[in-house]
Design brief:
alpha+beta; Murine Class I Major Histocompatibility Complex, H2-DB, Chain A, domain 1; six-stranded antiparallel β-sheet; 4 helices; 35% helix; elongated; disordered N terminus; YezG-like_sf
Length: 158
């Protein structure tokens, strides 16, 4: 994952996501951690609030957060390298916000997702051949096979 302090163009979007979540978090939150997995067709978000008494609490995610994160994903996509598959945004009460974007590692969806979802994501955020990690290449092969089977044709080798 690429870590960075948020002080560039995506800063406003990361802060907006934090502000939306903070409004829904318990009043005693000290640190918020947003973990996000995304493709163009599917997303999953979980938010943990670390509270003043040392406990943690899950936070209900306001609907608006998803649009903000989708915009952040699009803004941070790198031509030829694609968009990130998972991200973490953390914030503390003092207003420090940091982000970590995963462009290469398998995002490890808890329930797994169909391989065709990743193929669709590459349609929107293309990657050069050398920017496709092995796990994604395997998913793309699987997607190609599924699509060929649905069309009644053999899959072409890549």
């Amino acid at each position: 994952m690429a870590d960075q302090d948020v002080d560039t163009a995506p800063d406003a979007l990361a802060r907006e996501a934090v502000e939306l979540v903070a409004d829904a978090a318990p009043i005693t939150w000290q640190r918020l951690i947003l973990r996000y997995r995304a493709t163009v067709s599917l997303y999953q978000c979980e938010v943990t609030a670390h509270l003043a008494d040392g406990t943690t609490a899950a936070v209900d995610i306001p609907y608006e957060v998803h649009g903000t994160i989708a915009e952040l994903r699009s803004l941070t996509a790198v031509p030829g390298q694609g968009a990130w598959f998972s991200a973490e945004i953390s914030a503390d009460r003092a207003g420090q916000v940091s982000t970590s974007f995963n462009y290469t590692e398998d995002p490890d969806w808890p329930e797994g997702i169909p391989a065709t979802i990743f193929s669709r994501d590459l349609d929107f955020y293309p990657r050069t051949d050398d920017a496709i990690p092995d796990w994604l290449r395997e998913k793309l092969r699987e997607a190609k096979s599924i699509i060929a089977e649905l069309r009644g044709r053999p899959a072409e080798e890549t």
